[in-house]
Amino acid sequence: MPNRKPEHSRERALAILRAGADESSAAIARVADRLGGQLNTAAERIAGALGSGGHLWIFGNGGSAADAQHIAAELSGRYLREREGLPATALTTNSSALTAIGNDYGFESIFARQLEGVCRPADVSLGISTSGRSPNVVEALRTARRIGAFTIALTGEEGRDCAEMADLTIAIPASETPRIQECHIFVGHVLCEIVEDMLFLQS
Question: In CATH, what class is 10-200?
C-alpha cells in the first residue's frame, strides 16, 4: 500500500488543480474556435436521423465508453428540455453481448458485430476514441459505413485511423489524454444541446 508523501502539501494540490483547470479551459476554447463547423454538421446529421426514424449508436472504450453512455442517456432521457425521448443507444452496456462477441470473434469485433444486427442506412454511428486508433472503434465505423449509416469519429488530434472510416471527424486540438477526454464530454453536451434545439425549438 503506497504511503502518502509528507512533502505533498496543500499548495502542490492547488497547483495541480489550477494547472489542470487552465489547460482544460484552453483546450475547450480551441474547440470553440476551430471546430464549430464540424459540431454543427454533426448535430445536423444526428438531429436529421433522430427526427426521421433513425437511431444514434455510440461506442468507445474505457472513459470513452462512459462518454458513450452519458451522451446516450442525455438524449434518451433529456438534456435541458422537457421533450420526448430520442432513440440513442450506447453499445457498451450489454456485458453478455460484449463478452460473447469478444470471446467468439475477438475484442476488435465487439461493436461492429452489434451494428451488423441493428444499424440501418438512416442511422448515425458515433465512435469515440481518445487516441483515434482503437481497433474496435475503427472496425465499428467501417461496418456502419458499409451499411450506409453516417459515421462520426470523435478523437484526439492524432485520430487518423478512425478518421479514415468516418464521414465526419471531430478531432480535439489537444495531445494530453485528460484534456482530450474533458473536451469529449464537453462536445457531447454541446451536441445534445444543439440537437434538442434543432428538434424541439418550438416546444
Answer: alpha beta
